[in-house]
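Good morning C.,

I know you're traveling, so I'll keep this short. The sequence:
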Amino acid sequence: MSKILVVDDDKNLLEVIKYNLANDGYSVVLAETGTKAIEMARREKPDLIVLDVMLPGIDGFEVCRILRKEMSVPILILSAKTDEIDKVVGLELGADDYISKPFSVRELMARVRASIRRGQVAEQQSSSKTPEETKPRSILKGHDLIVDTVRHQVTLKGAPLNLTPKEFELLSYLMQGKGQVFSREQLMEKVWGYTFDGSKRTVDVHMRWLRQKIEDNPEKPKFLITVIGFGYKFEN
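The tokens, ready to paste straight into the viewer:
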């Protein structure tokens, strides 16, 4: 049973979210402050964190920043802040997704299911020790960059890279289609599994994070190439 940590200072909303998640078969733990969220995340090791931004004390952005340095758990930001800059800040701090309040329970559940499903697939692939590992498409290579989609590992010049789940999925998808140009909309659909509030900045922010981790010079990338007016491609 997947465990989800929900963080919000609105007790009524917490109960609504908890009810729907539990009814869908998830184990749910709750926190009402940023400090408690950090404590619960460290102790409970959740499979997903649904995190509100406006929290007493330590806000959600700071919680996201702290936890992202310690763990790769998917983080879904939940906030009444609707400005594009706030979404970008959350993504730059390591969040995987962002839902603006007010939201429908149906939308939230769809996002949660998608995140959990991708996490389960990654875990199953990581723990697999069968001959399937030898399939050609399980190892993706580009220059000194190697992505093992079975073990869910990435190395650059022999050194392991720590990527968030979304960064790993985005990089893997681009490498599987080497040389092919993908629009932001295509990447949103394939990697995130849905349209992210119509925002294309999500892909841009994650691409910038990836470049900072794998490119010698992020300003002049040799792997992740921008195709002006359309999208991105992985250049071998």
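Safe travels,
E.
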